[in-house]
Amino acid sequence: MQLFYDEGFIESAVLLCASRGETGRPAFAPGQAAAGRVQRLQISRFRREREKLYRILDPDERNAAFFKLHLDWFREWGLEQPLTDTLNEFPLVRELLGVLAVRRSTGKDDEGAELYVNEANRRTGVLALRLERLMQDAALRDYLRHEFTHLHDMLDPAFGYAPRLDLPGLNAAQQRLARERYRLVWDITIDGRLAAAGHAPLETREQHAAAFARGYSCWPEPKQVEAFNLLWHCRTPRHADFLALIADPRGLRDARRPAPGGSCPLCDFSTFHWADANVLPPEIIGRIRAEFPGWSREQGLCGRCLETYQALAAAGGAAAP
Ligand SMILES: [Zn+2]
Ligand SMILES: [Zn+2]
């Protein structure tokens, strides 16, 4: 496996590190002994070397020189160490991944590890990181371990990962809920394994249990607790088991059962005006199913949606010879 860095990531990381060092704040990754005077000398050397590179006229040559300089100091200041150390704990990732590319993430939402597989079955991992993470060594290692476990699972044949969730018969709202649940149960099994191995999980067992109870509030409590414990203690999670759990049709249907203020499975708006789905004419049901194959009567529909389908049916009726 090769480790690639995005140029912007490396540059921002060393510049952040240097600026923190100059202000006397803890700048360097702990474990790096460059303290006090040595640290300030290093930073001014880095600044001088960097200044010189602006004299290179050829833009490609100049960029290459900047990248090399930034990478050298990235390593010198111990910023690469947590990445390589943690990767060493994941032999399967190192063996099966062609490239791991590290880039800077702009926010919390696009942070994390992803896997890309091309037609030639070449596997590339992309890790997006917020710069601030580099400044906290222990927390960074915990985060990397969690994200690399995602990669490990995606690469492990025993896990049986598929990039697309195959959820036939679910409407758009149910599919979204199922995807949220997938993330939820996967994270539980990851943090459960990390905790069992003596590492710090990203979220505690209690936090995960509470999130699981919220996600499966339609289940009776004993069933919630039992399923959660199975996930938390699971050592060999499988994609297929997750699918069965997230797409439990009864659970999803109950989660969207017509309740005051609940969301309509067709338009996804919350409503207090549910239509009486038990007295729908077959023609309306047919029209709804044509658009939402996974829809069933028990899920209900809001009054506005019913009006729309009635209007469509009336128009269709009028047009018929
Ligand atoms: Zn996760
Ligand atoms: Zn509706």
List the helices and strands and how they pair.
Blueprint: E1 2-5, H1 7-22, H2 36-53, H3 59-76, H4 81-88, H5 91-96, E2 99-104, E3 112-117, E4 123-129, H6 137-155, H7 172-196, H8 205-215, H9 221-233, H10 239-246, H11 249-255, H12 282-291, H13 303-319
Parallel strand pairs: 1-2, 2-4
Antiparallel strand pairs: 3-4
Helix pairs in contact: 1-3, 2-3, 4-6, 6-7, 7-8, 7-9, 7-10, 8-9, 12-13
Question: Can you characterise this structure?
Answer:
This protein is of the alpha/beta class. The chain has three domains: 2-155, no CATH class; 172-255; 259-321, no CATH class. Helix content is 55%, strand content 7%. The protein contains 13 helices and four strands. A hairpin with a 5-residue loop joins strand 3 (112-117) and strand 4 (123-129). The model has no long low-confidence stretch (mean pLDDT 87). Residues 146, 150, 187, 190 line the site of one zinc ion.
Work out the radius of gyration. Answer: 26 Å
Question: How many runs of DSSP E, i.e. beta strands?
Answer: 4
Distance between the termini: 68 Å
What hetero molecules are in the model? zinc ion
Q: Helical region count?
A: 13
Percent of residues in beta strands?
A: 5-15%
For the largest sheet, list the strands in their spatial order.
1-2-4-3
Give start-end ranges of low-pLDDT stretches: none
* Whole-number mean pLDDT: 87
Shape from CA axes?
elongated
Helix content: 40-55%
User: Biggest sheet: strands, sense, closure?
Assistant: 4 strands, mixed
Name the structural class: alpha/beta
The H/E string reads EHHHHHEEEHHHHHHHH
What's the structural domain tally?
3
